[in-house]
Design brief:
The protein has seven helices and seven strands, in the order H-H-E-E-H-H-E-H-H-E-E-E-H-E. The chain is of the alpha/beta class. The chain has two domains: about 35 residues; about 160 residues, Rossmann fold (3-Layer(aba) Sandwich). The two termini are about 40 Å apart.
Amino acid sequence: MTRKTHAWRLLTTLGLASLPLLSGCQLVAFHTLMWHDKPMRDVKAEYPYLAKHRVAVLVRAPMETQFEYPHVQWEVADHLRVALEGNVAGVRVVDPKQVAEFQRRDATWESMDPAEIGKKFTAKRLIEINLTQYTTREPDASHIYRGHIAAVVHVYNCDYPDSEPAYTADIHTRYPPEGTGEWGISERSIRRRMMEAFAADVAKKFYDHKVEEIYGRD
């Protein structure tokens, strides 16, 4: 018997002997420690009605954000396209560059009914992303890299023009989620990864998924 195997058997024996003394949450933590399983729970889609539909994504961004990042509208939309098509069954997303080009060519688009814009692209649903924050630096420490995207997300049913959104959510994504960017990471990398994280956060509103269960104290 190797030293490693002997140590593991001893840890297991001691752990099993203490099981009667553990509460429910402590038992889960013990199981996770011993067998490296992460307890997961199911999360239902908040709006499960994108599946098998053609969907357009429209991004609204403040002028100062567009000035600093000229392609921000189609970049954010394209990251969401990837997240949706990779997770929502049968969804088909309109090429975000087509939507961004429409925004560039038609000066009246901001006053148009979102459902009507979706119909221009033969979409059944339109996802509208209203960016309220888009930065690669900490707001109170501009020398520190950390991505922040905040947005109000609306979904419109294109079969019902001039109607209220069928679904609304507020999303605030931080990257890295736990703290500032690692030493030496570039702003370009931070921006790409924060858009990927934001797209994942938005997409999860539209399909069933699993998240790690967080247990508090009893």
